[in-house]
């Protein structure tokens, strides 16, 4: 459905490298609608919750420390099949396995510096959007270009 939403977050490595604009641009040009956007220094508590499914993995503490080490650019994008398409636009978790043309395939090499997060299911997206944004930060608006994007 065209009102599906996903949580996309440029990680501190991506923010530091000046990739926020490019990543926003890719989602805009694809035809998705931006419904929330902010820069944030995330607390350890928030990051432990965000990555809760990975607690216990050997890289968990390092991951939480790194994502909290600098600002992240948090956004919510809306449109048809945006969760799955967003993941395809990101590439694989491992940048070296990601095809050129994808965000990670174009900009990253190491697993722990893969530039951008994207929700892996509609269920995770709903959880992550609630975790990172207050309801009043999500803007409902009509994109005039939708008539040129959707048939
Ligand atoms: N990660 C890592 N080492 C690993 C696996 C994952 O540093 O062996 C990091 C990587 O940055 C990844 C994040 O942990 O993006 C979350 O892992 P997940 O499996 O959820 O991958 P994603 O959903 O981001 O593709
Ligand atoms: Mg994940």
Describe the secondary-structure layout.
Layout: E1 5-10, H1 12-16, H2 20-30, E2 33-40, H3 44-50, H4 60-67, E3 72-78, H5 82-90, H6 103-107, E4 116-118, H7 122-132, H8 146-149
Antiparallel strand pairs: 1-3, 1-4, 2-3
The chain binds uridine-5'-diphosphate and magnesium ion (MG).
Keywords: ATP-binding, Kinase, Nucleotide-binding, Transferase
Binding site for ATP: 11, 59, 87, 93, 104, 114
GO biological process, one term: UTP biosynthetic process
Q: How would you describe this structure to a colleague?
A:
With 151 residues, this protein is an alpha+beta fold. It has a single domain (5-148), classed as Alpha-Beta Plaits. Helices cover 40% and strands 16% of the residues. It has helices spanning 12-16, 20-30, 44-50, 60-67, 82-90, 103-107, 122-132, 146-149, and strands spanning 5-10, 33-40, 72-78, 116-118. The protein has a four-stranded antiparallel sheet. The longest helix has 11 residues, at 20-30. The protein is globular. It binds uridine-5'-diphosphate and magnesium ion (MG). Uridine-5'-diphosphate is lined by residues 54, 59, 63, 93, 111-112, 114, 117, 120. Its EC number is 2.7.4.6. One of its GO terms (molecular function) is ATP binding. It holds the Pfam family NDK. Its cofactor is Mg(2+).
**Topology as H/E string?**
EHHEHHEHHEHH
Q: What is the CATH-assigned architecture?
A: 2-Layer Sandwich
Count the E strands: 4
Q: For the record, what CATH class applies? A: Alpha Beta
Measured by DSSP, the beta-strand proportion falls in 15-25%
Bound molecules: uridine-5'-diphosphate, magnesium ion
Unreliable stretches, pLDDT < 50, 5 or more residues? none
The rough form would be described as globular
Count of alpha/pi helices: 8
Taking all Cα atoms into account, the compactness measure Rg is 15 Å
In the CATH scheme, what's the topology name?
Alpha-Beta Plaits
What number of domains?
1
Query: Widest sheet: strand order?
Result: 2-3-1-4
N-to-C span = 13 Å
Overall average pLDDT:
97
Give the proportion of residues in helices: 25-40%
How does the helix and strand content classify structurally? Answer: alpha+beta
The name of the CATH superfamily reads Nucleoside diphosphate kinase-like domain
Q: How would a textbook summarize the main sheet? A: 4 strands, antiparallel
GO molecular function: ATP binding; nucleoside diphosphate kinase activity
Pfam family, one: NDK
Keywords: ATP-binding, Kinase, Nucleotide-binding, Transferase
GO biological process, one term: GTP biosynthetic process
